[in-house]
């Protein structure tokens, strides 16, 4: 099966990433353009006897390609997608524009005293614009984290690794324990129903990380992840707890009461936006579109030259 009338030709240069289902390579286009490309190769094995590409996979890749046509500046561009199936094995190849680094690498190179406030604002604004676009098109990311956000040399933020959520979910049972819990919304940890607000939770975790330069909630089991969350946002009321969850409500999961000043040293707007991203109840959590109109983005213009709080204030923590 080929999704493109004319496939791109390229040579692989180096491996740049290894995920749960395959590898990502840096590549160079052969021919006139010589563009740098990222080639993502995913391999799947089916349990079922039926050969061929499952229809849901065809739908997902078609959706990815559709998203590519819009050319949104904050979504990594998919240039080609092809799939080959041999018996119960399937090789899916995605060819993407190459972007210099991911946000995790970018943050690891940040000065120890922190990122400038204008930079944090710019990164968040672009991230939310990308998310708003995905959500408007009814696409959930479901695994938003610094490794899945790319930062170009011109400081453009591009969301990557999206649209495969359903394909990944299908395979996740086969590869347990590979997915980080740190950016996961409580309703996902609690096995409850979820919607686009899961990505806003992750965006909130990333917002905090831009200040802290370390993940906000670092749990290693679902229950521990929830405990870390409640230490900061407070234990929700029992009425907000999803009834169908296999994890039962318990006072021992965290301290009571909700707190709106989640992080010390953030100003009022920063804390307000953060606390609206990190609301336990997904129905009350802020949407990407709404977040973009928050005073954090619209109130302040540029800081007067002497008032720029350039270096953040977390040097004394951890
Ligand atoms: N378009 C790209 N340009 C450059 N590097 C990329 C690109 N896409 C992904 N990468 C790198 O490869 C890693 C894995 O890619 P990703 O799409 O997240 O796959 P996985 O499903 O394996 O997590 C990313 O964390 C990033 O460092
Ligand atoms: Mg990834």
Characterise the protein shown here.
The chain folds into two domains: 10-97, Phosphorylase Kinase, domain 1 (2-Layer Sandwich), CATH 3.30.200; 101-316, Orthogonal Bundle (Transferase(Phosphotransferase), domain 1). It is built from ten helices and eight strands. It has helices at residues 55-70, 103-108, 117-136, 165-172, 186-189, 197-212, 222-233, 268-277, 288-291, 295-298; strands spanning 10-18, 22-29, 36-45, 78-86, 89-97, 101-102, 149-151, 157-159. Strands 1-2-3-5-4 form a five-stranded antiparallel sheet, with helices on one face. Strands 6-7-8 form a three-stranded antiparallel sheet. α3 (117-136) runs antiparallel to α6 (197-212). The protein starts with 9 loop residues before the first strand and ends in a 20-residue tail after the last helix. The structure holds adenosine-5'-diphosphate and magnesium ion. Magnesium ion (MG) is lined by residues 19, 147-148, 161.
Distinctive features:
5-stranded antiparallel β-sheet; 318 residues; binds adenosine-5'-diphosphate; single chain; disordered N terminus; 10 helices; 3-stranded antiparallel β-sheet; binds magnesium ion; Transferase(Phosphotransferase), domain 1; Phosphorylase Kinase, domain 1; alpha+beta
Gist of the model:
This protein has 318 residues and is α+β, with helices and mostly antiparallel strands. Helix content is 31%, strand content 17%.
């Amino acid at each position: 099966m080929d999704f493109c009338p004319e496939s791109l030709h390229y040579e692989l240069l180096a491996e740049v990433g290894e995920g749960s289902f395959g590898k990502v390579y840096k590549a160079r286009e052969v021919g006139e353009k010589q563009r740098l490309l990222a080639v993502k190769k995913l391999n799947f094995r089916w349990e079922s006897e039926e050969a061929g590409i499952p229809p849901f996979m065809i739908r997902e890749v078609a959706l990815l390609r559709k998203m590519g046509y819009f050319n949104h500046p904050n979504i990594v561009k998919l240039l080609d997608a092809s799939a080959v199936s041999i018996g119960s094995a399937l090789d899916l190849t995605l060819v993407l524009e190459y972007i210099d680094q991911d946000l995790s690498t970018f943050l690891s190179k940040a000065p120890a005293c922190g990122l400038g406030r204008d930079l944090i604002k710019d990164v968040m604004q672009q991230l939310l614009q990308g998310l708003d676009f995905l959500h408007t098109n009814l696409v959930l990311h479901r695994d938003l984290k610094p490794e899945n956000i790319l930062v170009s040399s011109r400081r453009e933020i591009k969301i990557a690794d999206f649209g495969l959520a359903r394909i990944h979910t299908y395979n996740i049972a086969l590869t347990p324990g590979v997915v980080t819990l740190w950016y996961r919304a409580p309703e996902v940890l609690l096995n409850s129903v979820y919607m686009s607000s899961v990505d806003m939770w992750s965006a909130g975790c990333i917002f905090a990380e831009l200040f802290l330069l370390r993940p906000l909630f670092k749990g290693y089991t679902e229950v521990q992840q929830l405990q870390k969350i409640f230490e900061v946002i407070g234990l929700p009321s029992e009425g907000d707890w999803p009834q169908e969850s296999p994890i039962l409500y318990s006072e021992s999961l965290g301290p009571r009461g909700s707190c709106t000043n989640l992080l010390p040293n953030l100003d009022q707007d920063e804390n307000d936006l953060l606390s609206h991203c990190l609301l336990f109840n997904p129905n009350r959590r802020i949407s990407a579109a709404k977040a973009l109109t928050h005073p954090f983005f619209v109130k302040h213009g540029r800081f007067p030259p002497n008032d720029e709080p350039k270096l953040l204030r977390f040097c004394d923590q951890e």
